[in-house]
């Protein structure tokens, strides 16, 4: 298992009015992974990223990036980090290549046009080097933001809502960019409100709510552990009520009477499917279709945060 490149221990951020945005956060981010940081508005996502990147000073706790403490050795720690903010703010009249080169210079890195061109090429911006920023599409502008963040060759890249306001096609294009960056060895931490984004590209998911990390788990394992499956049976003829032998299965009858839904745990030794199908045949109900569906990460996430509110999540 890869060693952590970012280590956070007992991180607290408390403001002057007493509000605690982060409450004892512990988190290890592995080198070379894509970690999706999920949470509702106000959960502490931005505060956590800002603390790691040196924008916000924590009240207490420690953060190390590549072994460098962000408080006592902040220059070396910051050199390893690239940050792509949610807001798209670019100098409209500046050329793309110069915009990216300027960001590299801010980190004290030597002028390197060849490297800037390689970064642009990797983001499909190579032919836009001499184009003013204002002439770019919204999706291309977001790629320029990523190029700026990569200009000083960081090992860790933070993407704060990188596809906010982007249509589905451009969003999927951005997923490909993120996958390519991972292939190059860049560690990526992604905050997003698009649950399918985390499900599609993240190696692990961290759920933060009310300033606390509620869960960190491999995405596939989380789906397998907490996802339920639903089997929907479509009937040839509608029924008004469930026959007695079917009622004991805990089925849900659709409003139009044409379908029944059965919820089960696919990992259980006995799912009840065999008995249910046998009972369906025995009642004489005619079936036209059977489909199954697994819970999405969004449904799992809602369940986790609801559990946290009732004190069930720890």
Automatic annotation (TrEMBL):
Q: Could you tell me what this protein is called?
A: ABC-2 type transport system ATP-binding protein
The record ties this protein, via PANTHER family, to: ABC TRANSPORTER ATP-BINDING PROTEIN (PTHR42711:SF10)
Q: Keyword annotations for this protein?
A: ATP-binding, Nucleotide-binding, Transport
PROSITE patterns registered for this protein in UniProt: ABC_TRANSPORTER_1, ABC_TRANSPORTER_2
Q: Which GO terms describe its molecular function?
A: ATP binding; ATP hydrolysis activity
List, for all copies, the residue spans of the domain called ABC transporter: 6-235
Gene3D superfamilies linked to this entry:
P-loop containing nucleotide triphosphate hydrolases (3.40.50.300)
